[in-house]
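Operator note (shift B, R.M.): manual run for Small ribosomal subunit protein uS5c requested after the automated queue skipped it. Running by hand, logging everything below so the morning shift can see what happened. Input copied straight from the record, untouched. If output looks odd, do not overwrite the archive copy; leave it for review.
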Amino acid sequence: MVDRKRNYKDRDNRVEWEERVVSVQRVTKVVKGGKKLSFRAVVVVGDQQGKVGVGVGKASDVSTAVRKGVTDGKKNVITVPLTSSNSIPHKINGRFGAAKLVLRPSAPGCGVIAGGAPRIVLELAGIKNILSKQLGSNSLLNNARATIDGLSNLRTFVA
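Run finished. Output pasted below as returned.
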C-alpha cells in the first residue's frame, strides 16, 4: 500500500518554495469575557518557475499564523503557463469578490508593472514581463486571489 502522506511530503521537499507575507492583520472576536485577539496572515508561496499559491493563516501569534498561511498556500498551488519571454500567453481578467484585475502580456524588458499583492503573486510565479491593473476592491487578499483566478484561467495555444 502506498503511503500518500510520505509521497506528498517528498514532493514538497523537492521544490524550492519561496514565501512572502502580503499582510498581517490583527483581528478580534468578541466573546463573553471581552475581546479575543488573533492575527491573520496572507502569504504567497511560489517557485518562480510557474507555480504559485495564496494561503491564509490565523493564530494567536504572528509566526504561527504565517506558518499556517504557508501550509495553506502550498495546498492551493496552481501552474502558470509562461511564454519564452517570461510573460503570459494572452490578456486575461481575474475576479474574486469585488476585486477585478486585468493582466496583459508585455514586451521583453518591460518588467512587472503591478502594485501590491498582484506584484508579489506575479513575481513568485516567475513572470518577468507583464502589465496589470487593479479595479474595484483595495483588499490585499481579494486582489491576490483575483490574480490567482486570472492566472489559473490562462490557456496556451499550440500551433
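Quick read of the result: Residues 41 and 106 are 31 Å apart (CA to CA). The beta strands are 18-31, 34-46, 51-59, 78-79, 92-96, 99-105, 112-113, 130-136.
Leaving this for review. - R.M.
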